[in-house]
Amino acid sequence: MLPAHFAEVAARNVVADALSAAYGPNWPWDPTFEQSLPNPHHNTYKPRRDLASARQRYSTTGKVIAELKFVFWQKMFTQRHDVRLWGPHIVSLFPHAPAAITPAQLRGRVYNDLESIRLVRNRMAHHEPIFTRPLADDLSKMLDLVDIRSAATGTWVRALEDVTTVLTQRP
């Protein structure tokens, strides 16, 4: 769980930084941002409703950030946010990403990696079996996400995590 937690926090902080740059420090209450979120009518995740619920319970941006679900942060890495968030900000927010990758490619890669991370994280959190998953790939995505955000944090997470050792001793 430790590498998954750090990957989630890295993604959450990137999005929060991008939102602050685009909408100001009180972005959870910005009507333009709120309207940029999808509000589907069918039984799928509703980020606008999730944001409104967090705002009702908490009065500071920091508390709202902590309350929003992992899927909220992942869904922010969609193409709908390229113009305001990712085109202008993603390269500076992931300073250790490969230089040859375009902002749209990086955003897409982060979205896809977060999907894998979210799935394995949810299985672990619910004490469900994960043995058939490509765990080495999942771990690599977690560590890579942290690395491209902050090399120092990536080094620290590698020193703390023991998943690499466990995977090499796997029966």
Key traits:
mainly alpha; globular; 171 residues; 10 helices
Structural account:
With 171 residues, the chain is an all-alpha fold. The chain has one domain (2-165). The protein contains ten helices and no strands. The chain has helices at residues 2-23, 31-36, 47-57, 61-67, 70-75, 82-93, 103-125, 135-149, 151-160, 163-168. Helix 3 (47-57) crosses helix 4 and helix 6 (82-93) packs across helix 7. It is globular and about 55 Å long.
Proportion of beta-strand residues:
under 5%
Tell me the total number of β-strands: 0
Order of helices and strands: HHHHHHHHHH
Largest sheet: none
Question: Residue ranges: pLDDT <50 for 5 or more in a row?
Answer: none
Mean pLDDT over the residues? 94
Q: Helicity level, as a percent range? A: 55-70%
What structural category do the secondary elements indicate? mainly alpha
Task: Offer a concise description of the structure.
This protein has ten helices and no strands. With 171 residues, it is mainly α.
Give the secondary structure arrangement, pairings included:
Blueprint: H1 2-23, H2 31-36, H3 47-57, H4 61-67, H5 70-75, H6 82-93, H7 103-125, H8 135-149, H9 151-160, H10 163-168
